[in-house]
Write a sequence for this structure.
């Protein structure tokens, strides 16, 4: 019987004892090896004589294995032989929930015990075959006692089909298993070295009891039990469904997480479903999207708006205190840019993301509320990047050529780079000295102290010292970029603002003013390859802001509503507003002087210039905002950052790994 079972606290290493001997641990070797604590584990695994210990909190699930062991005379012999085992059997039920979507699948898993040589599970003939095969790799060590003690070191379990398994085996033996079980057998009570060994337990009941105990402990952790999943089948390389079937579903099943899967049929469907009153979200612990930043934006907006409505909060008002949703969100990357995943996980790997979800690892991230400047209306919520000018024009162009796939961004970017268009505008920002600057060397990573302090502060009342200073900047800009997260992605080594924090309650605002094409190219290179710090150029200004407002400067006779300049000078943004043109003298020299001029003289001034200079007329038009890869047509906006408004399933950015890739320039 189980004499001592000690999965102590969440932070302790797993030490399970049967008759005072450790007997069984299980974890995801391939992917958890990315975690810093387990880097050494990977090394240990290479050495047959070493033991592997892992944190209980790193365990995804417990499976039961009972084994017949074949002894090998040869020392340190390795073989791959199938053994009888107990395994998880999955039940898949097809449920059509017309209220949600026509393609809604519910999966559930139950643990059963069966003795088989190899277990293949094909839950339903109607479903595409989902197989779980179990493979064992045995490291047979020399027996150390007369009674023929033996030790079973490693059992590898693969959730892939035969071909995939063989491919993985041949490509890299260390990466052959997606799951690893260590089971130590052989007992030699007379041998002092054998402290960690145990007697082999063939009795299923005993192992069931052990597994049950571990599972009970794991269930007490704050991990999701039921998830709502949205898949965008058209995001990125259109591999959303494939990623779900091949990588996500098996891990959800292993971890006994029930999921409701909705494959979207059109843009905005996820948001509509989340906002529909008929959709009951109470059953879920979290909402996961399989897609890119745009798809995550849909889910984010749906969940946030729903939460505010349920709590009768007037979210149209920019100053409203927003309520944090109870539901946690998660992203499995299947888009083109996936900037939020890069910033919160460190890389773009669907399996790594789903493991964070399964283990219930979360971080709190900031959200920007984008409001219409004139009408006090919410336009949308954003969690990563906003860009006006160059990036606004690029996204507008790229949407027209979506058929080009992910290459569309490169093509549109080159086109807009050659145009090299300047846009006039006035930006009003709030600066708080304690927030620091985007230029400060302070990378945001796992357990980031800056974000932790900001989280505590945002819950407390702000003191008088915290009241921000507000300034106004007018000029002509090639681009105005706002980064809530660093913006790191496959196109940019460290992102637009490498030191941006995911939860400091601020956005990094980067203003690119007038410069030559060559200079701008150098700047874009520095963002993409980090050849030098992107903030070193004299035409770049950067600010860390909690709030900002932008008004384009366009001709007052412009037909479209809300873009007339006289509205923007009648500003009510902050009472304590200081006007400031610093750093922009050269840029505003040929700018129309609009300060405190009468409406008529301003009009005639503009018209004079319009007739005399065609180029200037171009300057006086406006761009659009690129908001998380989506177009916001209204250029006059007000953005407020809400500190840590969302709890996201993610492990946090491993700064150590980032620094190992090369220095981030200050
Ligand atoms: N079934 C669908 N058909 C067409 N569009 C969809 C569908 N489902 C979602 N969308 C929309 O597709 C847009 C882009 O999706 P997504 O963000 O997943 O991919 P992406 O744009 O390639 O990646 P990224 O945003 O990371 O660059 C989203 O704005 C979303 O609203």
């Amino acid at each position: 019987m189980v004499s001592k079972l000690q999965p102590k606290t969440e932070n302790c290493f797993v030490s399970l004892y049967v008759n005072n001997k450790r007997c069984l641990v299980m974890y995801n070797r391939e992917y958890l090896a990315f975690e810093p604590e387990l880097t050494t584990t990977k090394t240990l695994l290479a050495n047959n004589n070493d033991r592997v210990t892992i944190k209980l909190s790193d365990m995804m699930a417990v499976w039961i294995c009972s084994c017949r062991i074949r002894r090998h005379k040869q020392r340190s012999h390795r073989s791959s032989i199938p053994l009888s085992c107990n395994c998880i059997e999955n039940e898949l039920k097809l449920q059509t929930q017309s209220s949600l979507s026509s393609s809604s699948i519910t999966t559930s898993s139950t643990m059963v015990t069966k003795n088989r040589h190899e277990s293949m599970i094909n839950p339903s003939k109607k479903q595409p075959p989902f197989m779980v095969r179990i493979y064992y790799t045995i490291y047979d060590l020399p027996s150390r006692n007369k009674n023929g003690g033996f030790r079973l070191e490693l059992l590898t379990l693969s959730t892939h089909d035969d071909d995939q398994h063989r491919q993985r085996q041949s490509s890299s033996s260390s990466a052959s298993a997606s799951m690893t079980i260590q089971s130590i057998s052989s007992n030699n009570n007379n041998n002092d070295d054998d402290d960690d060994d145990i007697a082999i337990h063939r009795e299923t009941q005993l192992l069931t009891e052990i597994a049950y105990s571990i599972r009970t402990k794991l269930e007490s952790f704050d991990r999701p039990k039921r998830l709502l999943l949205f898949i965008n089948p058209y995001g990125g390389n259109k591999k959303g469904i494939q990623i779900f079937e091949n990588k996500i579903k098996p891990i959800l099943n292993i971890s006994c997480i029930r999921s409701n899967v909705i494959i979207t049929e059109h843009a905005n469907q996820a948001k509509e479903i989340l906002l529909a009153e008929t959709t009951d979200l109470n059953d879920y612990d979290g909402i996961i999207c399989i897609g890119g930043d745009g798809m995550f934006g849909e889910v984010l907006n749906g969940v946030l708006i729903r939460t505010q409505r349920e709590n009768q909060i007037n979210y149209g008002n920019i100053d409203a205190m927003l309520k944090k949703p109870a539901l946690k969100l998660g992203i499995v990357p299947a888009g083109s840019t996936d900037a939020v995943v890069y910033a919160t996980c460190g890389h773009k790997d669907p399996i790594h993301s789903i493991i964070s979800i399964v283990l219930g690892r979360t971080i709190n991230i900031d959200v920007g509320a984008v409001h219409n400047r004139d009408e006090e209306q919410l336009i949308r919520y954003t969690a990563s990047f906003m860009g006006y000018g160059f990036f606004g024009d690029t996204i507008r162009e790229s949407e027209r050529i979506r058929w080009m796939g992910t290459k569309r961004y490169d093509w549109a970017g080159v086109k807009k780079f050659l145009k090299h268009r300047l846009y006039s505008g006035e930006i009003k920002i709030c600066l708080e000295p304690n927030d620091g600057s985007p230029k400060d060397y302070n990378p945001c990573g796992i357990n980031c102290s800056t974000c932790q302090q900001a989280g505590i502060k945002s819950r407390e009342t702000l003191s008088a010292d915290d009241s921000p200073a507000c300034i106004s900047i007018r000029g002509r800009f090639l681009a105005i970029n706002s980064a809530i997260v660093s913006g790191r992605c496959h196109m940019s080594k460290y992102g637009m603002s490498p030191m941006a924090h995911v939860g400091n309650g601020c956005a990094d605002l980067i203003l690119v003013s007038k410069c030559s094409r060559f200079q701008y190219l150098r700047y874009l290179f520095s963002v993409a390859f980090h050849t030098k710090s992107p903030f070193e150029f004299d035409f770049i200004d950067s600010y860390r802001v909690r709030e900002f407002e932008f008004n384009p400067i366009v001709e007052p006779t412009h037909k479209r509503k809300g873009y007339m300049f006289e509205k923007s000078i009648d500003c009510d943004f902050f009472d304590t507003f200081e006007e400031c043109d610093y750093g922009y003298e050269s840029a505003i020299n040929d700018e129309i002087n609009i300060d405190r001029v009468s409406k008529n003289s301003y009009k005639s001034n503009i018209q004079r210039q319009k007739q005399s200079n065609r180029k200037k007329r171009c300057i006086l038009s406006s761009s659009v905002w690129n908001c998380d890869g989506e177009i916001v047509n209204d250029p006059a906006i007000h953005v407020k950052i809400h500190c840590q408004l969302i709890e996201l399933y993610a492990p946090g950015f491993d700064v150590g790994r980032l620094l190992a890739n090369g220095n981030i320039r200050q």
In short: The two ends are 60 Å apart (CA to CA). The longest helix spans residues 293-310. The pocket of adenosine-5'-triphosphate is lined by residues 232-236, 264-268, 291-295, 298, 335-338, 629-630 (CB under 6 Å). The mean pLDDT is 66.
